[in-house]
Design goal:
Length: 172
């Protein structure tokens, strides 16, 4: 918060280079931890970056991220466009997305306890780079990820079209 959507950049980029990952669980993982500040802003309970911005948050959210993905696959029939749903890859994708959120936030905010509840040390990653650089990296990953995905899908489409044309030639 307040730049939650920026975190999607990591998920888009990673999926563009590792297309066997579960993109839904990955993308949900990159943003779902910010339910904590939203909850805080609405109710005043807890903190902006409290115990969910940590390893505990990863443990709490990785199964829900995968369940939401499974529901999307099932009801939106995503198997047609993506790799088949695989529970292990889905859970791993969620975990990677979640840790990426904690990682990029930990650089921005000194109060983040990365390893909570195993350790309560604050700010281990704080300021290892400037907040501008942090956002810049996420922004670049956003754009580059989209470009790679675009190229990937274009090539797939072109290949399919060519195969259809060849088939037409054979039929004639
Ligand atoms: Zn956050």
């Amino acid at each position: 918060m307040p730049f939650t959507p920026m975190h999607l950049g990591f998920g888009i980029f990673l999926f563009s280079i590792l297309p066997f990952l579960d993109p839904i669980a990955l993308l949900i993982g990159t943003v779902i931890i910010d339910l904590e500040p939203i909850f805080y802003l609405i109710t005043g309970i807890g903190r902006m970056h409290g115990i969910m911005h940590s390893t505990l948050g990863v443990i709490v959210f990785f199964i829900p991220a995968s369940v939401i993905s499974w529901l999307c696959y099932r009801f939106l029939k995503l198997d047609k466009y993506l790799h088949k749903y695989n529970i292990y890859l889905s859970l791993i994708s969620g975990i990677i997305g979640l840790f990426s959120h904690v990682f990029f936030d930990a650089i921005l905010y000194p109060e983040i306890m990365f390893f909570y509840p195993f350790s309560q040390i604050n700010g281990i990653l704080y300021n290892i780079m400037s907040s501008r650089t942090d956002y810049l990296i996420l922004g670049i990953m956003f754009i580059v990820g989209f470009l790679i995905l675009g190229i990937r899908y274009y090539l797939k489409y072109a290949k399919k079209k060519k195969a259809e044309e060849n088939l037409d030639l054979v039929r004639r």
